[in-house]
Amino acid sequence: MSGGPPKDGIPAIMAPEFIPVTDEKRLGAREPVLSFAGPSGAARAYPIRYLMWHEIVNDVVDAIPVAVTFCPLCNTAMVFDARVDGRALTFGVSGMLRFSDMIMYDHQSESWWQQATGEAIVGNAIGAKLTQRPSRLVSWAEFAAEHPQGLVMDEPTMRRAYGANPYQSYDSSRPFLYTGENPPHGINPVERVVRVGDRAWPLTRLSVEKHISEAGLTQTWNEGQASALDSAEIAKGREVGTVRVVDARGKDVVHDMPLAFAFHAFHPDGTWLIGASRTAP
């Protein structure tokens, strides 16, 4: 269904500009940024204050084309390798939603892609799937401390209310244009979950236990990051904390932090790990 704005009414960024971490003066310490590093290890931060208004940033990192994406309606912040069968794609915002999640389109074939899964769902590319790359939602302060030589996306030149949240109180109310069933186990539809594949850990559990080691993964939670979907000003959002997910080798694991309703919609047979009495649906 239509999300309101027409095709490209939410304009994707095609040529992002970056500045050194030490030159950034706009971001609040607790503001969320999407942290991503290419094969060389050089880290880039994509502030949610910009992704909130553009939803897609088409970038090239270490000669690899990537699509940096954020759907505020599902809180799905994901970085994809933008190559399919050796062909580099660029993406725009179609203006359509499915299960309240952004549908992207590629400029090369006009196929539609589901942002929450990276799958092509309409058009010549149907059946193809983008490869998700490891990335993390972290606070600006944490990124700057960990990557003092890193780069941060500079403010776009378009006229937008950067730093403002147009979805005030969204993650404490109800999903927008979503008519599917609620998650099982009485989980709040707008609660954040840590998604790894088709498994989900409620953030309420992780934020209490602080450290979870199970299913071959280790997850940690630390305070210091604001919700981008709470207050009118992103930097003043309530505490949601920062999550890290690593495997047995200590390597960062591909994951994201969707709202619970979105995980259930796109992974209806997924497993919910809710604690000592965790239950598969």
Question: Can you characterise this structure?
Answer:
The chain is mostly beta strands and 281 residues long. The chain folds into two domains: 136 residues, Rieske Iron-sulfur Protein, CATH 2.102.10; 103 residues, no CATH class. It is built from four helices and 21 strands. Strands 1-15-3-2-14 form a five-stranded mixed beta sheet. The chain has a four-stranded antiparallel beta sheet with strand order 4-5-6-13. A hairpin with a 2-residue loop joins strand 16 and strand 17. It is globular. The two termini are 28 Å apart.
End-to-end Cα distance, whole Å, is 28 Å
Q: How are the strands of the biggest sheet laid out side by side?
A: 1-15-3-2-14
Q: In which range does the helix fraction lie?
A: under 10%
Query: What is the β-strand count?
Result: 21
CATH class of the largest domain, please? Mainly Beta
- Strand percent estimate: 25-35%
- Unreliable segments (pLDDT under 50, ≥5 consecutive)? none
- What is the H/E string? EEEHEEEEEEEEEEEHEEEHEEEHE
Mean pLDDT: 96
How many domains comprise the coordinates?
Answer: 2
Short description:
The chain has 281 residues and is mostly beta strands. It has helices at residues 48-54, 140-146, 203-209, 260-266; strands spanning 18-20, 32-37, 43-47, 56-61, 64-71, 76-81, 83-84, 87-88, 91-98, 101-106, 112-114, 119-122, 131-133, 136-139, 151-153, 193-196, 199-202, 211-214, 217-222, 242-246, 271-272.
